[in-house]
Amino acid sequence: MRKNLASAGRVTATFVLAATAFAISTVSSGAADSGYKLGVMDKLRIRVAEWQPADGSIKNWDVVGGEYTVGPSGAISIPFIGDLAAAGKTTGEVAGEIGEELRTKFALRNLPSASVEVAEFRPVFLAGDVDKPGEYPYSPRLTVLKALSLAGGLKRSEAGQRFARDFLNAQGEAAVYDSQRARLIARRARLLSEVGNAKEIEMPPELKNFKNAQQLLDSEASLMKSRRDRYEFQLKALADLRSLLQSEVQSLAQKTETQKRQLEIATDSRDKMSRLTEQGITNNNRLITLEERTADIQTSLLDIDTNALQAKQSISKADQDEINIRNDWVAQRAKELQDTEAELEKLSLQLGTSRQLMTEALAQSAEALKFDPSRQAANIKYTVVRDAGQGAKEVSVDENTELQPGDVVKVTSELLMQ
Fold it and tell me: pLDDT tens for residues 177-193?
């Protein structure tokens, strides 16, 4: 009986371990290689883990993991590996080389799984006719206009040019707020789909005319699928565990019936032997043996009842865990939706303020009526100095051009304002 219980325990432990390994492999395989080529000053976050099939565990290479900066030579220095060339490679390529290096140096049977992500992109630099030239942190989809806004706009000049500078500053801030607002609207659409258990995200009316609306929705749809898969996997794991426990309860119930029948037989035999002993037909030894047999069966019945009760308690706990997971899912979606609505309201106020400042800036001068909002009448030239691996090259761009990490933006302003 105890062997059967131990076997059931091993089955349960194996199930939980397999579920854990599946979750880890899912997270590892979800890391996407964007194709971005690394460069000097990029900061990388590295994590390494290795599956140990012998004992079914995960070994974390914490001594190798951490944050690294691509040095002037284009390499990162990793313990046990040494200098590893990173410049000009993608995060996926670097991750693969780390795994291969560790397997080679330590003669590992299994290839360690390395995860490499960009913790911080190398900065961009603004020079020329900007208010605060210098180094600024890069963020994805950073445009020339947004970078100019980070640098305080155009350099302070004569009083007659002040309205143009104020207009450009306010317009840059409005562009940033517009982009943030679009992302929040896409997030809200995804949360509404999750709350309503929808399979797809509907295009919000506010984003129909937005340039990158579909890209934003595709990104949110990918996140929604990942979260939904993780949620459904947790529920399935609990359902499988509950099914396993219910099978154990049924098995214990069958054993209880068998033991009860044996107890009846043993009790009947003991009573008959007791009467024969009293009549002097047989000795006490056989009666004692039957009494011990009866006691063993009664003890076994108690053990079976105890194990069945524990299994039923585990089923109740699994039911409660499922309720908690479902409640937490709903509560988290509601909280995120509430926070998103609050951020949208705040951004709407900031956007309205920026547009009012743009209007006031144009009204500050009699020349405002001559100012072309497309800046065709204002001679502002943007040049990007970029090194794509074949030496630095200068490229003329406009304010909507997206920058890359490490770009140097030169701004030349020739505002012919009085």
Answer: 888 888 889 899 988 88
CA distance 196 to 190: 10
Neighbours of 107 (CB within 10 A): 6
Pairing mode of beta strands 57-60, 66-69? unpaired
The distance of Cα 316 from the centroid of its chain, to the nearest Å, equals: 30
Q: How many angstroms separate the CA atoms of 196 and 93, rounded?
A: 40
19 located within any domain: no
Residues 6+ apart with CB under 8 A from 119: 43, 44, 45, 67
Q: Which domain holds residue 406?
A: 125-154+372-413
Q: Which residues, 6 or more positions from 235, have their beta carbon under 8 angstroms from its beta carbon?
A: 322, 325, 326
Q: Are residues 262 and 230 in the same domain?
A: yes
List the structure tokens of 79: 């313990």
Residue 108: pLDDT band (50, 70, 90) is confident
Q: Are residues 168 and 307 located together in one domain of the fold?
A: yes
- Other C-beta atoms closer than 10 Å to the C-beta of 170 total 22
